[in-house]
Write a structure and sequence with these properties.
single chain; 479 residues; alpha+beta; Aminopeptidase; Alpha-Beta Plaits; 2 domains; eight-stranded antiparallel β-sheet; six-stranded mixed β-sheet; 11 helices; 28% strand; elongated
Length: 479
């Protein structure tokens, strides 16, 4: 029996193990201090999921370690005679999951099998792929195949919300020599675009009087990496202007087809806009409520000239553009395609205007390239860029040894020699851990249910990804 055939015999054990893991509600929550003084930095549910998976590693015959409750790892060491030259191959997954939200047809933390699918939060992202990797390694070891490199499955605990867990691990143990994170798509993600998060901010110097037409509040969005579906603005001042603004809104809606409504509230006028939400990496799938509101507000003259200038700058240089066309950062390359720009959050009051913007930029450019062009556009304004976070892009050529081996593992198992490698706009642990790439586990053409209600993983895909990971482990550790 070969290692792939042995792996097929683990089907029921794999499903059982995944169901046990799904049962832990490992949504990141407040830090817990236990009676014995231990600290659970990501909450009880995440911690229990870690302890369970470390136990699985031990039961499967490997060495398991808890890294200060911040992370964990499961080790399979190189065989005798290979230790001196052995490298460490890392498989970096995560056990935390996103909140369940609404719309589930069953309990999200009770895995159910229906019509060939395994339903439950975490089945696809990322507990299913982690379990698949562990059983793939077990099949290789039980076949008595020698490991020439060390294999370490690293378990992160806050991938969905931050990087504290994996940074704690790398600060203590360093980075693997090569490897992958099973937290994305096949055939392989050999590049991830850079991410530049910043605020476009301006303090207002003038203070109009109470009788002047003023924008007292404009709020929209909750996250820089999401297209906001709703926006609300409040206008105050002399109410004689309100009727004409309401007429402007009705005409604006008729001409553009946008959903905009006005409502008088005492001495103020409320304006509400509805767009369409989507992920910030795919703004073309949404309709930005901030941009709708800004376009409408651009037709109103407020007493605060700084505010008028800010709105005009937005409409002149950002508007509904998704690729930085008028903001000095219209970059693209053959590897990545065009830059992606999303305006995620708006906060404007009578003292300050601030927009939170998320840019995903091509792998051959730098954040300095972006800021140079944007600052040129801003040169004659009082608007400034406040940098919040930068994630540099990663990219490995398809000809590199690791990439070619991983790609071969996918192609040989599936027979798919046509689907190209991917450079994606999203970010994974590959951006936080050196020398690794995102490899599976979603197959081309599959419906992406990650982060959705009724998240699910087909049993066929579960077993197929395990076979691919087994081939990959064999190629990286045994050949």
């Amino acid at each position: 029996m070969g290692y792939l055939e042995r792996l097929d015999t683990y089907r029921e054990d794999m499903i059982r193990t995944l169901g046990e893991s799904v049962a832990f509600p490992s949504v990141n929550s407040e830090t817990v201090k236990t009676q014995d003084g231990s600290v659970l930095p990501f909450g009880r549910g995440v911690h229990d999921a870690l302890i369970h998976m470390l136990g699985v590693g031990t039961e499967l015959g490997f060495e398991s370690s808890n890294v200060d409750n911040y992370a964990g790892y499961i080790d399979c060491k190189a065989d005798d005679g290979y230790e001196a030259d052995a490298k460490t191959v890392g498989i970096v997954g995560h056990l935390d999951v996103v909140p369940v939200g609404t719309g589930w047809s069953g309990d999200p933390f009770v895995m159910t099998e229906k019509d060939g699918f395994l339903y439950g939060r975490g089945t696809a992202d990322d507990k299913g792929p982690v379990v698949a990797c562990l059983y793939a390694l077990k099949a290789i070891r039980e076949e008595g195949i020698s490991l020439k490199n060390n294999l370490r499955v690293i378990l992160g605990l806050d991938e969905e919300t931050g990087d504290i867990s994996i940074n704690h691990y790398t600060e203590k143990y360093g980075h693997p020599d090569l490897g992958f994170t099973p937290d994305g798509e096949y055939p392989i993600v050999n590049g991830e675009m850079g991410i530049f998060i910043f605020d476009l901010a301006q303090k207002f110097s003038s203070s109009p009087s109470k009788e002047d037409l003023r924008l007292t509040k404009f709020e929209a969005g909750t996250a820089h990496n999401a297209v906001p579906a709703d926006a609300r603005a409040v206008i105050a001042g002399n109410s004689k202007y309100f009727d004409s603004i309401e007429k402007k809104a009705a005409l604006f809606a008729a001409e553009t087809g946008y959903n905009i409504r006005t409502r008088k509230q005492g001495s103020a006028l409320s304006i509400e806009v509805k767009g369409k939400a989507s992920h910030g990496a795919r703004p073309d799938q949404g309709l930005n409520a901030i941009s709708i509101m800004m376009e409408f507000l651009g037709g109103i003259h407020f007493a605060n000239e700084d505010l008028n200038d800010y709105i005009q700058f937005y409409n002149d240089h950002i508007g509904f553009d998704l690729h930085g066309e008028r903001f000095g950062c219209k970059f693209e390359d053959n590897q990545s395609g065009p830059l992606i720009l999303n305006v995620g959050v708006a906060n404007i009051n009578e003292e300050l205007a601030s927009l939170s913007i998320n840019i995903r930029y091509p792998v051959t450019f730098t954040d300095a390239d972006l800021t140079a062009g944007m600052e040129e556009c801003l040169r004659d304004t009082s608007i400034g860029i406040i940098t919040r976070a930068v994630q540099t892009p990663i990219y490995m050529d398809l000809s590199t040894d690791m990439v070619s081996k991983l790609l071969a593992a996918y192609r040989e198992e599936t027979g798919d020699y046509e689907t190209p490698a991917i450079v994606q706009a999203g970010g994974t642990y590959a951006k936080m851990v050196n020398n690794i790439l995102c490899f599976g586990g979603m197959f081309p053409g599959e419906e992406d249910t990650m982060h959705q209600a009724d998240e699910r993983l087909s049993v066929e895909s579960f077993m197929k990804m395990a076979r691919i990971y087994a081939r990959a482990i064999y190629a990286l550790c045994c050949e």
